[in-house]
Specification:
This protein is mainly alpha-helical. The chain has a single domain, classed as ABC transporter involved in vitamin B12 uptake, BtuC (Orthogonal Bundle), CATH 1.10.3470. It is built from 11 helices and 2 strands. The protein starts with a helix and ends in a 10-residue tail after the last helix.
Length: about 300
């Protein structure tokens, strides 16, 4: 029983990262209604940029570790912000009235570009952060061997806080009402004096920011974030959000959290080599049998 509870607790950390990515994806998709493959790449790009700049500050600029980490976060936020603005202005704005497949191909190209930029910047080497906040936190007391590391606790709390703040904005402020209005009827909101293009840009920037945050948290915990990991995360989020609702950020986040817990349990009882195959098979099966009379969206 203790082993099962430990796996379940570890799954909460995976769930937090998945939930953040899913929440950010739906923030963007709810406005654009286009399949986007770039958020997984931005997730990895932000993590790798953070690690690379931190390593540069630590080794070349002789910064202390906290200062180097802050330097890495600042530069990564700047790059991801520029990337988000470029996505909004160079991809979605010109392709606003184009087919879904056009945007899909454009975001795939952006993902490849980001991957190559990171590879060249790192000189094809892997950089790793040292273990941070690795001390265990015993959740049920020192006599029960069920624990998380300090960084896992921090990551979970940050993810819950960000999603909670997002839901507060979505449900209690004019920004959330405008987001829902543009998501449902962009032409009608334009007739009411609201600029859908501006709302789209802000939604994309918010989505990129959430994805970047997930990348930072993953880098702090794992020490490194590869682009293959980012692409797998992005594909899983695409399937999860399609199953959980492409216009409901909280529903998508909850669905992603469930998948994160399932992955942890699978890794504890079955072969890790088959974990991704099992998760994708489960998601494809769920999408095949799912019926929702209130929503009819294509992936």
């Amino acid at each position: 029983m203790t082993y099962f509870l430990q796996l379940l607790i570890n799954g909460i950390h995976n769930a937090a990262l998945y939930a953040l990515l899913a929440y950010g994806y739906v923030l963007m998709h709810g406005i654009t209604h286009r399949t986007d493959l770039s958020l997984g790449a931005l997730f990895a790009f932000s993590g790798q940029t953070f690690i690379l700049v931190t390593a540069f500050g630590w080794t070349a600029l002789w910064m202390t570790l906290p200062l180097a980490l802050g330097f890495g976060v600042t530069v990564a936020i700047l790059y991801v912000g520029l990337g988000g603005y470029a996505i909004a202005q160079l991809i979605y704005k010109p392709l606003e009235n184009s087919s879904r497949n056009t945007v899909l191909v454009a975001t795939l190209g952006l993902s490849i570009f980001l991957m190559e930029v990171s590879r060249l910047a790192a000189d094809t080497r892997d950089y790793w952060l040292p273990p941070l906040l690795a001390a265990p936190v015993h959740l049920l007391g020192p006599d029960v061997d069920i624990s998380l590391t300090q960084i896992q606790v921090v990551n979970i709390l940050v993810a819950v806080a960000v999603i909670g703040a997002g839901e507060l904005i979505m449900n209690r402020t004019s920004a959330g009402r405008i987001w829902r209005a543009v998501s449902d009827e962009p032409f009608a909101t334009a007739m009411c004096g609201i600029d859908p293009g501006r709302v789209r840009t802000r939604a994309i920037l918010a989505a990129c920011g959430v994805s970047a945050l997930a990348g930072f948290l993953a880098a702090l915990y794992y020490g490194n974030v590869s682009f293959s990991t980012g692409m797998i995360f992005g594909l899983k989020i695409l399937f999860i959000t399609a199953a959980g609702g492409l216009s409901r950020p909280l529903h998508a986040a909850l669905g992603a959290a469930i998948v994160g817990v399932i992955e942890s349990l699978w890794g504890g009882y079955f072969s890790v080599l088959w974990r991704d195959a099992a998760v994708f098979s489960l998601l494809v099966f769920f999408l095949a049998v799912r019926t929702n009379n209130n929503e009819a969206e294509r992936i």
